[in-house]
Structure formats: structure tokens, C-alpha cells
Amino acid sequence: MSYLRPALVLLLLFTALTGLAYPFAVTGIGQAFFSAQANGSLVERDGRIIGSDLIGQAFTSDRYFWPRPSATSAADPTDPTKTVDAPYNAAASTGSNLGPTSSKLADRLTASSEAWRKAGLSQQIPGDAVTTSGSGLDPHISPAFAKAQVARIASARNMSEAQVRQVIETATEGRTFGLLGEPRVNVLRVNRALDKLGS
Amino acid sequence: MTLNGWLQIAIILATVLLAAMPLGAFMAKVYAGKRTFLSPVLGPVERSFYALAGVDPAREQGWRAYALAMLLFNAAGFVLLYALLRLQGFLPFNPQGFGALSPDLAFNTAVSFVTNTNWQSYGGETTMSHFSQMAGLTVQNFLSAATGLALAVALVRGFARSKMNTVGNFWVDMTRSTLYVLLPLALFTAILLVALGMPQTMLSSVDATTLEGAKQTIALGPVASQVAIKQLGTNGGGFFNVNAAHPFENATALTNFVQVWQMLVISVAIVFAFGRLVGDNRQARALVWVMGVLLVAGIAITYAAEAAGTPMLHQAGINPADGNMEGKEVRFGLALSALWAAVTTGLSCGAVNAMHASFTPIGGLIPMFLMQLGEILPGGVGSGLYGILVMAIIAVFVAGLMVGRTPEYLGKKIEAKEVKMAMLAVLILPTAILGFSAVAAVIPQGLAGLLNAGPHGLSEILYAYSSAAGNNGSAFAGLTANSPWYNTTLGLAMLLGRFAYIVPMLAIAGSLAAKTKLESSTGTFPTHGPLFIGLLIGVILILGGLQFFPALALGPIAEQVMMLTGKTF
Fold it and tell me: What's the whole-number mean pLDDT along residues B187-202?
């Protein structure tokens, strides 16, 4: 048949070209010239990998800035057919996918905002403090959310609030070219900056 | 909404237009078979491919032969991809040791990538080996996009030619689309994306010990090579489960900029190429105006709805200025999330950088409605152009009825056959979307997949079939679609939305090519002016509105009303 040969031959040729040659070429060039980015922008401390600059981590200690809530989960170690909450599981990204009339979302929002009130937050709650991100791995928080955590961190670390604010100030990234994206604070970076202060 | 937000949106869209014009000129040359600056490098590759495949590039095909070649090529692609997914456990580059996909999931995924839909019933990093991602999915990202471009060019030739019984050679159009358009752009932008932070490695993951001493396993892989083409080819199938919301798949506002540009540029460029191929750039500009007006309106409504937030957020004491950040990333905020949502659905891309399921009801209605309008704003690569040309045929037909003249478009008389075929194509979408949604909404297999209750649950179903039939691929991802019912019916909706549309469209191409191209006279209705732009916008909105308003009223519109009364489910 006059159609079968071109269909099969072109499919195989393009599979070799776009499915093998192309991704391996990008891998070769990426690894040669941009190896840090190509390998996941990993962050090392004393020769050990402590995470990725681009991937959020679950911080719970009072001494650290906390990230946004995360909707990721993992297989339940006791029953593999079920899942358990596992915030910032970077092996299985997911959002909550709860809609604007979900009572589950309403309960979660009320519970987290009450928790922030109890933690001493008196002003308006920053939007990102109680909402889960799309990926469940958001590495950033808004500057407003970082500032809302100053008092807790200052008291846990015996630092002055001004010192903590200074750390936030230094860690805040502006919009790219003053235009694109939103101002933000990388949680892993700002927490490392806290640790470097030593207290 | 902020001034900065609008400035970001304006600059990205302007950059697309600036690049699309020269790219369109280049593509017009490629499809006319002329030499380009890439010919010295790619010409020999192209000729050797034809020699091996036994293709005579000078021999053209009639519309039936063109359609048959396209169908066979896509069927072969489906069989190969299905086999790769079913045999995944035995194939190389599988560091996580993932096993075979289930038959229904492999069917759904293979159909999904061959039809340029890229609906994903699976989570990438927990299901697919590197080999499946590269040699399976990435290949179809290229080839389904190339198929779309080839088909659009065939229809354009129908308008450009006079009294000919051929519309081109599918093998040549498909090969040129891949070699000269998709591959160079993908290679260049993939490397750019790696430089901007996107992983590209054969490792599957690394283990980190966090500052608090916990273990964190971070999934990695050859991400950039797949993301570059999934955006350029308006495919949309992510390497990771959450697609371009994942920081590895979209690290910064800059990678977001590049990816929105990638999504739009070819779909807009092919419209400019159309203008050159029919010898009248004004016709192309008119279509770009239609696409632009409707797309910007979609962006504006989504942005406004997300910035307004929801009563639930306000009651929880959240700063109203922060809008609705559930399911959105801090680095993108409201403006870039709204921009992406409208663009990815006005196109048939379907990649997402925020979770559409968690948008406000109106913010989620717009992406759904943009898909239901037929994926023509500006639509998928190629499919957007042939989609809007079918709409243009209907628009001149309506205009012809009003003044009692035989309608003409681009010098071709639009007669009963073209209008019948156009209506046949256009009716596929409501049939597939509303038919399957209606069944899924009443049977237990359909209801079993829902995450949200109330009207939002119906929206999950409606969105899924709109996405599948429109060959989009985005989702209200609360729906658990990896079940035999959804995998099978969504797969069928994708096949209908792609191929049941293409065949009548190619019949129009064949019929038009055979007609004499008329000189325009004083009685010809001009199809480049504001009157036609307005008419086409009207036809698109009225057709889409009449078909889908009743269903939308039960889903997002009902949800909006109930949300404002404070009801939850």
C-alpha cells in the first residue's frame, strides 16, 4: 500500500529525531553549560543536599519561617491503599482542587485563620498564608506573610524584631525587571539566612 | 486588578504579535516550498526522509488522499504510543521502575497525545518513565502539532487555488512543519528554559535532608525538552502532575513569560502565514483582531473575578486585596495566573500554572467557555486557524442570507456543500460535550470521580468533556478521571473532537480548491473590515452561547449565585 510505508517510516524517523536525538541533545547542552539548573538547582550545605532552591519545604519549627499550606499527600505507610497528608512531598505534586463553594475548603480556611489569630496575628491575614498553592510545592511566600511571622521567630531565636525584619528585607525578591511576576520571599533561602546569623 | 498586572499582560501579548509576523512570513515560505535560511541544514535531512519513506514531494494529493494519509499516520502513532505505554516495564530509561499502564489509561493517554489534547488522567512523576515521556509523549507533541499545521495549510490552499483538484501533500506538509518550524523553535527554547532553571537530566530524583532534618525526595527528569514542545505545539501535557504550576516546570515570572509566548506564537503566526498564502494580509489581520478582542475580554473577566476573591476568603479574615490565591503560586500572583488560564483555553494548549478548579465560579467559567467556543482564540497550532476559517464560512453565509446574495469568502463562492460541511464540523463539539456530560452526571461511574459537590461537581464533568472534545487537556482536576468510564469516554470525546471535525473540514478544502477564484466586485462583502470582524465575533459568541448557556447556567453560573448567598456544599 502506498500510504503504509510513508506512515510507518516517517513515524520511526521522527521518533528517533524528536523522541531521542532532541531530548538527548538538550540534556547534553543543558548539562554542559547550565549544570546547576539542569540538575534541579540543588542547595548544598557541608556537602550534603538540603533541598532545591525552587522547591518548597515543610517548616514547622517556631525558629523558621513557615511556608504556605500544601495539599500534597503520600501513601499511608500502614495501609498503601490510602493516603496521608504529607506537605511539600516533592515526589507527587498536587493542588487541593477545592472549589469556591466547598465546605471542606471553608472549614480549612476558618481553621487556619483561627490558628494565625491564636499565634498573635492581629492585622488582616495575607492571602497566601491560608491558601494552598497549585503545586503544593510553592517555594515562596509573600513579603506580607513573612512579616506576619516576625514576632514568633524573634522570640524563638532571641533576636530583635528589627533583625528579623532586616533578614526579610534582604531576602525579598522584587519583580523581574521591576515588572514581571510578584514580590516574594524564598522560604528556604530566608531560613538559611536566619541560620547563618547563628542565634 | 492592578496597573502592573495589566502592564505585564500587555507586554507579553505585544511580544507575541511582534514575533508572530516574521514567523508567519517564514512559515508561508516553508509551506510554499521555497528556500529559507534553514534549508542548507535541513534540506538534506528532509530529502533523505522522503527517500527513505518513498515519498515523492512533488506529487500532490486530493482531499480524500490527504485525509487518508493523515488518518493512517495518526493511527500508526496511536498504536506505537499505546504499545510503548503498555510495555513500559520492559523498556529502558525507567529509573523508578514504573510498570505498564492499565489498558484504559494507556488508551486514554495515547488518544490524548495523538489528538493534541494532552488530557492527563495520570500524574507524570508518579506514572511515566523517562522513555515514555521522551520517545512516546514528546514525539506525539511534535507530530500532533505538525498534523494540525498541515491540515490548516491544506484548507488555506483550498482558498488560495483556482480550479485544482489537489490540496497539497500531507507527508510533505507534516515533515516541513516538524523540521522547519517546531524542531528549531523547540531546541532553542528548551535550552533557554534550562538556563532559566528548568531541570534536564536522566536522573529520576534526588533525596535531600531538609533544614529541619526531614527527608525530601525531589522528582527530576528530562523536563525542559518536553515542556518546550508541549507549549509550542499547544499540547499542554505536563511532565509533572501539576503541570506549569510546578516550580521545576515554571520556575519564575521569566519562564512564565517564555511559556505564554511559546503557547501563542505559532498559532498567531500561522494566521499571518495564511494572509501571505492567499495574497491578502488584511484578511489575516481581521482574524487576529477577532481572536485578540475575544481573548483579551476573557483575560479581563478572569482577572477581575480572581482579584475579587470569594465570600469564604473574606469571612476567614483574609486581606481582600490578595484576591483568590487558592491553587495559585506566589511568584505568578493573580495577573499571570488569569492571563495563563485564558490563553491556555483560548488556545487548545491546556497547560496550567494554577488550578482552575479552585478559581472563583466566573474565573472558572471563562476557561470553560473559551474551550466551548471551539478553541479558535487563537486555538491550537493549525487547528485554531482551520477552526476560525470554518466559523468565517458560517459568518459570510449568515451575511449572505441577510442581503440575499451568494456568499463569498476570499474569492470563493460559499455554497450548500461548504455550509453543510461547516455545520457538520461545528456540531461535533456540542454533541460530544453535552452528550457525554449528561450521561456522566446521572450514572454512578460518572459521579464516583467527583471531588466537589453541588454545582461545582457538574462543572468538573462539563469542564472535562469540554476539554477533551476541544482537544484542550486542562481540567478541573478534582475529578478523578483515571477510571475505565472516564478514560474511555474522554478518549472517545477527544477522537470525535479531532477527527470528526477534520474530515468535513478537509472536504471543504477539496471543494474550495476545485472552484474558480473570483475577482472581487463592488457587490462583494468585504471580509477585512470592522463590519466583518464584528459579525464574526457575533457568530462565534451566539453559536457558543446558544449551545452551552443552559449547561453553564447549571454549573458555574448557579455556583456564582449560591456562593454569593453564602451556601457551601
Answer: 97
What is the rounded average pLDDT of the residues A127-143? 97
Whole-number Å distance between alpha carbons of B484 and B21: 45
d(CA B66, CA B505) in angstroms, rounded, equals 12
Which of A4, A34, A184 lies at the smallest CB-CB distance from B330?
Answer: A184
Test A93 with B224 for CB contact under 8 angstroms.
no
Residue B203 to residue B221: CA distance in whole angstroms: 6
Same domain, A9 and A78: no
Does residue B430 fall inside a structural domain? yes
pLDDT digits (tens, 9 = 90+) for A85-101: 999 999 999 999 999 99
Selection from B270, B273, B268, B262 nearest residue B185 by Cα: B262
The residue of B8, B98, B211 whose CB has the most chain A CBs within 10 angstroms, and thus the best one to mutate to test that interface, is B211
Other C-beta atoms closer than 10 Å to the C-beta of A49 total: 17
Looking at the domain assignment, is residue B6 inside a domain? no
> Is the pLDDT confidence value at B121 over 80?
yes
Q: Do B563 and A101 touch (CB under 8 A)?
A: yes
Q: Are both A88 and A180 inside the same structural domain? A: yes
C-alpha cell at A64: 523558621
Range of the domain at B392: 282-565
Which tens digits make up the pLDDT trace of A52-82? 999 999 999 999 999 999 999 998 888 888 8
ipTM of the complex: 0.96
Domain total in chain A: 2
Number of domains in chain B: 1
Task: Clarify whether residues A81 and A27 are in a common domain.
Answer: no
Domain membership of residue B343 (yes or no) is: yes
Contact yes or no for B81/B110 (Cβ under 8 A): yes
